[in-house]
Amino acid sequence: MTKTDDIGPEQVIIVNNPDIGLSGFLVIDNTALGLGKGGIRMTPTVTIDEVARLARAMTWKNALADIPFGGAKAGIVWNGGDENKKKQFVQNFARAIQPLLVKRYIAGPDVNTTEKEMQWIAEAVKNSQSVTGKPAKLKGLPHELGSTGFGVAHAAKIAIIAKGLDIKSASVAIEGFGNVGSFVFKFLTEMGAKIVAVADSRGGAYLKTSKFNANKISALRKKRLSISEYPGAEKMTREKFFALPVDVLILATVTDVINESNKNKIQAKIIVEGANIPMSEKIETELAQKGVLIVPDIIANSGGVISSYAEYRGYDSQKMFKLVEEKITARVREVLQKSVKQNKNPRDIALKIAQEIITHKPRLIFS
Fold first, then answer.
1. Domain 11-140, CATH 3.40.50.10860 — does that match?
2. Model confidence over 33-78: pLDDT tens digits?
3. 147-350 belongs to CATH 3.40.50.720
4. Residue 73 is among the residues annotated as catalytic for this protein
5. Which of these is catalytic: 3, 37, 61, 73?
């Protein structure tokens, strides 16, 4: 069972339904700033400890985004199956945690959940306010608009400037091409960035002397081919991908992709954490001590939860994107400037800011 401290978690809920083989978890970490907010992920390996780590990250992330949400996260063990089985799992889980929805927790998309799954939850509990990231027909701002990737792209831009590089000449590698990585690619391409390497779940591709073309990638995706099939690119395994000599490495998949097996192979000057907890704090510190500038997940990928807040307030997509850019740009710039001035790891700076925000707010009581 996960450990507790002065911050949380406040509640840990385990959901089991042997009849259908469902196992899931909800961790409400801290509600000092408001209702617990965090997505529901569905993976074969998700554990209660992973969900607790992610819930704590949401506590920090929401505080740093300066929005009135607390931290929470949920996970469902999902080994795959057809859409009917997935809907059964999602709705069964939703009904199990229904007493906490809206009162203590608001769900949202995460790994392997999208606006479709959010609609299933809303239908199961007969309350569209129980989720964000839902379809537009339910007055939602689905994460498929790319809010998280949009924020990660702007975080990368600020980090590149802070390192004294030019976004149009700094080489960029994007690890992951799902709902985060694909939009990081889109928005960085629009900024004129030099993206030289991209990886998806099936492999990676590297261009030594040029950058990726959006139209060619689009053509591959329409044919359901891997990015590794990009014409003229060097195919590579994910292991080799992490060792590329690039200026910027953007992590946009799952937890702990940089670990003991590959940490010493990293050559990037900048790492932007588009994924949640893509490495342990210990490894992050080791890389920072080697001179790698790391923009931590708790500020880099907060575009999704800022979008959730915008949806909660009834904003349209244009106002949402403006809010994401303003909040992430300001906070990343603040953290990196203080990091240089105080000669400290950016995460340490960000955590100190978040802790001060949370501890100076009275804890809210929800009935």
1. yes
2. 999 999 999 999 999 999 999 999 999 999 999 999 999 999 999 9
3. yes
4. yes
5. 73
